[in-house]
Amino acid sequence: MSATTNIRNWLDERFGWDELMSFLRHKTVPIHRFSYFYFLGGMTLFLFGIQVVTGILLLMYYRPTPNGAFESVQYIMTRVRFGWLIRSIHSWGANVMILTAIAHMFSVFFLKSYRKPRELTWLSGMILLFLVLGFGFSGYLLPWNMLSLFATKVGTNMTAQVPFVGHWILVFLRGGEDVTGATLTRFFGIHVAILPGLATLFIGLHLVLVQRFGMSVPPSVEAEVKAHPEKARELRFFPNFFLRELMAWYVALAVLGSLAAFKPWELGQKADLFASAPAGIRPEWYFMFMFQTLRFLPANVGPFAGDLIGVLGFGLAAVIWTCLPFFDNDKHGRGKRWITGVGVFALAYFVGMTLYAYLAG
Amino acid sequence: MNIDTQGSNQQQNLGSTEAARSSRRHFLEIFLGTSIVASLVSFLYPVLRYLVPPKQTELGPDLVIAAKVGELRPNSGKIFPFAGRPALLILSADGKYHAVSAVCTHLGCTVQYRPDLHEIWCPCHNGVYSIEGANISGPPPRPLQAFDVIVKSDDVYVQRPQNS
Fold this sequence. Notes:
The complex is a heterodimer of chains A (about 350) and B (about 160). Chain A has about 350 residues and is mostly helical. Chain A has helices at about 5-15, 15-25, 40-60, 70-80, 85-110, 120-140, 145-160, 165-175, 180-215, 220-225, 235-260, 290-295, 305-325, 335-360; strands at about 30, 235, 300, 305. Chain B has about 160 residues and is of the alpha+beta class.
């Protein structure tokens, strides 16, 4: 008996290893014309893993203080061997991960994968998306440069618009009335402890739910299979689908490596709490649609402040979007048309406003 | 691969295709395996190099002012920074200056001068050195590195021994 078989038997006797692993053998992925969208979730998970690994590596040198943060990132970028690679992959990876997470969300939405019984899978996924945006927002400040300082000032200021608890949230996020070194320490704690803990919890839940219900098949394919059961095709998850996913991960890693090598992430100028905001202050691209909307809003809408309307509007939209599966309880399982319409509008608004913000400058 | 392909026996033909297939599979497995191992090495190498901290070049000067003349009373010592590490300046009871590294040669604690013993003492594991830095008792395996002391006008200079 080989050593591997011995170890396997040892584990099997104690934990029922074979039983635990049997789900991998039985798990299948339906094959149809939309199967490519099944890669997006795994891709996001892979990129999250990259963020965890590179993030832990950055912690070896990063210092979360107003006098040390910028210098330590500078040190990583210039002195530490391959520091530029690790830091640029972390910055680029964050952006690509948010992109794949958003793409995953829209693909799940339009393929109606959130239908009964998968409402909670959607809900946990939406919570993960908000956590990922929180990662992006909190991580943006950590290099402590001018751009991130003012983006954080503006971003946290927006929360003050929330009625009743707004000011409390602002003080909570900033660690005081203003964005200072205290904010940096706080964002660091949120970025490396609170959010990773929550994300781990919800990724676990999300994966358990995906595993529990299996892959969803879009309604149109479902109808075709019902009419012609012999056309149903499946692929074994392990190793067939997994190896394909692995190839996609390799490509993603190559893309990240190339971006890091040819377009290393900039460091900018060190944050100065008493300097004027430089021109061209803007948030990361995934917040641009909100940024652009707020620029469009007049100072006052009727008796209300324009910003208040904007912030409340986005808050309400996020709640409705998150709860859409609960409205889509169509008896025939095809989903309601108007919900698809809402999705098209949301996607068009997101893409349109983002593009407009960049093109209009 | 198979010399015996002329045989009209179908069984043999089947066997040869199977052999070719399995050798092709074997080749692919080795090809895939080495590719994966090679790429893993290429991922791990930068990470390992990253974890090795860059060398610090700021060792500081080889000559520092450790104290002012008259700052130390006879039979007392003072810790001062020398080349980024603590060093110990002692004015002995008979009025002579001694300077040694204050890093214990046992496990790196910072030693101190004991006026009651007229010796250098490390509190971590009760190591004792003579005033010149020779290890006398306890666990220290080597003497403390000794430095040269130069008294010039009002200052007490300490420098690395010139002969080493």
